[in-house]
Design a protein that fits this description.
The protein has seven helices and seven strands, in the order αββββαβββααααα. It is α+β, with helices and mostly antiparallel strands. The protein is elongated, with a radius of gyration of 24 Å.
Length: 218
């Protein structure tokens, strides 16, 4: 009888099997109708094509296309679109080997996406990603996402307030105060911004009375 396997050899075999299993996982996208274009958005919001439906490709290829900017646990966007049909988008969590979602079945509806609905969704996507990046203390990347909202919509108070909150988290109180004031100019009823502005002014030793959207601090 041969010598029993050592623990290290057993671990090596198990790890090898797990790696092989993960590396051969397939990412599948089906659509009705077929031949829809499938693409992903990387961390720079650049659209990268994967192919047409029915699509079947290794997770490792998806990971390669996404690049190193999307880390395990982060969400990335899959877009399924076909001329004459309303595009569909999906936020999918990434894994070490590609994606935690291995199969998508998409029913496309005839028609074109209304411009207003498309813009609204894009804004929400940027805000969601900015919030997620800020929570992960990736403040610079969060501000880049907010730029994509504030540049075309400079009076969008929710984005202005979120920018202020990021500066507050970084203890950059002068910038935080500036952006809370900008938010209140456009939405004087934003209670959260009023409270935070008062807090920022207190931290800087400034008076908190008379705070409103039309007045800036000294």
């Amino acid at each position: 009888m041969g010598k029993p396997m050592t623990l290290l050899k057993v671990l090596a075999i198990v790890i090898g099997l797990l790696t092989a299993a993960c590396s051969t996982t397939q990412f599948e996208v089906k659509s009705d109708p077929v031949t829809a274009e499938v693409s992903v958005l990387n961390e720079k919001n650049e659209k990268k094509p994967l192919g047409k439906t029915p699509l079947l490709m290794p997770d490792s290829e998806v990971k390669k296309i996404l690049g190193d900017g999307v880390t395990p646990g982060e969400f990335f966007t899959v877009v399924v679109e076909k001329e004459g049909f309303v595009p569909q988008t999906f936020s999918i969590p990434a894994s070490r080997f590609g994606t935690l979602v291995t199969s998508l079945t998409v029913k496309l509806k005839e028609g074109e996406a209304p411009q207003e609905a498309r813009i609204a969704k894009e804004i929400l996507d940027h805000l969601f990603l900015a919030q997620k990046l800020a929570l992960a203390q990736q403040f610079e990347r969060a501000q880049i996402e907010l730029d994509k909202v504030i540049t075309p919509f400079p009076k969008f108070s929710r984005a202005l307030s979120m920018r202020a909150s990021i500066y507050f988290a970084q203890k950059n109180y002068p910038e935080s105060m500036k952006w809370y004031e900008e938010a209140l100019k456009n939405d004087p009823q934003m209670e959260e911004a009023v409270k935070m502005l008062a807090k920022v002014r207190t931290l800087q030793g400034l008076p908190t009375t008379g705070i409103d959207a039309g007045k800036k601090g000294p």
